[in-house]
Write a structure and sequence with these properties.
Length: 368
């Protein structure tokens, strides 16, 4: 990467801001933003607004207020060079006769993977790569994980008291957090591809597992981990399965009769390997990845959350903390599986963590 200016950084940061607007993709696409400048002035901005629609570069070119000939293009990911739902962005940039492209990093998609930059350079366009690399990679981490590991980004979410309890000793959990926190959690549901719970949560709370705040950007698939198919046909999840996508993961030896009842109600059965703790979580994630799910939200309960923690399968935490104390040895905690034996084995959070005030409580968001 050649030496870049403060102006280059400013324009690329603006492109990253635009990229964040594209979080509503139903399909597995990166969030990409684009800024086009000419003689130091911004003449066009764009981002990938929807799956199948124009990519960020084309969106920005179409919105230019002056000719892009000789312009500099700041884009948050390598321009594509293959035909997919849309033509290659490289060809649009070449046709527009831009002079320079600045991008943070290559697209990990094997169909691109450096080919876009090579195509631009072959056409005589200067390409600078590497500015804000870490920030851009962090923002597109779910997409990168899906492409490289073929698994979705896993978010563990729970609400707890100050003393770390997610319910009382009798199992009551409604409501630990206030309406503001609950509305925020519902909006998160509206941005993910799947919501995962264990059979214990279904039997105890009979949840609907839908987004009930504003207009969701996508309809998340409801995923129940039910090793022995104990889910009642009268539960809300089953009764609404024909209207909302519902997957049930069970063991390969689970009852065929119970499976037939759930399938008749509209549930999709997924049989995977069984471990001594329940269905294989890696197998579950592999299955979700094959269906191109980019982000999944694991809502528990404590045993399921604890298993994801124990098996180190989580990528991110969303912890809603309420200003109350529950107490009691029998009151469950969030990670209620085996846990670690030594403090040295604890999972240390990365530096990318935020704590924000939310209603009467607060929200911790951290990557692991």
């Amino acid at each position: 990467m050649s030496k870049l200016s403060h102006e280059d950084e400013q324009h690329l940061r603006r492109a990253l801001q635009l990229a964040a607007r594209g979080q509503g993709h139903v399909e597995p696409n990166p969030m990409v933003g684009c800024v086009i400048t000419s003689h130091g002035r911004v003449i066009g901005e764009g981002y990938h607004r929807r799956f199948g629609g124009p990519h960020a570069e084309v969106d920005a070119l179409r919105r230019c207020t002056a000719t892009p000939r000789g312009a500099t293009v700041y884009v948050t990911l390598e321009p594509c060079c293959h035909y997919g739902k849309t033509p290659p962005c490289t060809e649009a940039l070449i046709a527009a006769e831009v002079a320079r492209v600045v991008a943070p990093l290559e697209d990990p998609n094997p169909q691109v993977a450096g080919g876009g930059f090579a195509r631009l350079r072959k056409a005589g366009i200067r390409v600078d790569v590497g500015l804000l690399r870490e920030e851009a990679a962090r923002r597109n981490a779910p997409f990168f994980k899906l492409v490289q590991q073929h698994r979705p980004w896993v978010i563990l979410k729970w609400a707890q008291s100050l003393d770390g309890k997610i319910a009382t000793r009798t199992g009551e959990s409604k409501w630990i957090t206030d309406a503001v926190c609950r509305a925020h959690a519902h909006r998160t549901r509206g941005r993910v591809d799947a919501i995962v719970v264990g059979i214990g949560t279904v039997l105890c709370d009979d949840p609907l597992l839908t987004c009930r705040a504003g207009r969701p950007r996508r309809m998340a698939t409801r995923v129940v981990l039910d090793t022995d198919l104990r889910m009642p046909a009268r539960s809300q999840v089953v009764r609404t399965a024909r209207r909302m996508p519902t997957w049930v993961f069970c063991s390969r030896g689970a009852s065929a009769r119970r499976a037939a009842v759930l399938e008749k109600a509209g549930c999709v059965l997924r049989r995977v390997a069984r471990t001594r703790h329940g269905v294989s979580l890696p197998a579950v994630l592999d299955t979700l990845g094959r269906d191109a799910m980019t982000n999944v939200l694991v809502e528990g309960g404590g045993t399921v959350l604890g298993r994801f923690f124990d098996e180190r399968l989580a990528d991110e935490l969303h912890v809603y903390i309420a200003p109350l104390l529950i107490g009691g040895r029998a009151a469950p905690g969030a990670l209620n599986a085996q846990g670690v034996a030594q403090v040295a084995e604890s999972l240390r959070l990365s530096g990318h963590a935020t704590l924000q005030r939310l209603g009467d409580g607060c929200l911790l968001v951290a990557r692991v």
